[in-house]
Protein: Elongation factor G-binding protein
Amino acid sequence: MYFMTPEQFQFVKKQAKKILSTYTTSKDLKVIQAIQALVQEEIDGKLTFDGIEQQLLLQPIFQIQTKEQMELFLKDIKQYVEPFIKPTESELKKLFPKDKKLKLPKLGDFDWQETSYFSWFDSGTNRKYIVYREGGVLKGVRGTFSNSAKVGICTVCNQHAKVGMLLVSKKGTDLGTYTKKGNYICEDSASCNEALSDMEKFTNFVNNLN
Structure:
């Protein structure tokens, strides 16, 4: 039934917006057809289909001319998105054993079909937690997070947004020493997930921290 990941769904959403924008700004049939062909090429390069039936499910994207049509299209295809497997509170506590009083978010607040990774911020400790799956294994990183109160480019999703610096401390090679690694990421993780259509950037980010 599923044939898209959350990241791929966000990618298709971007393509749908591209089609809508083209119909809104141009009446030139050749321009519209050129964009449609480009979108088809992009989709074929990003998604793997098991059969013609799955390909046909995405064909209405090429007829999107209004915002209402786009929203209906996205609602129709969302059922084919494999959700991020919701972790249990026990699993999350095992990920961060050093945090004895770990404050967990309300897991029911997340839309798992639009979640490639999930994250929360503990204002009491100024720590930001990032949880993701790699090869089916649940993994996590956490570090101090400082809001920059300015717009910058997020290392994870590459969008212009309100960003902050995530700093992760690791034990150094010498006893009693620590190294710090970090980068600027979105303050709003839900917005970051919506903009994230290339998991390679996210993977590079977390690998750099580990």
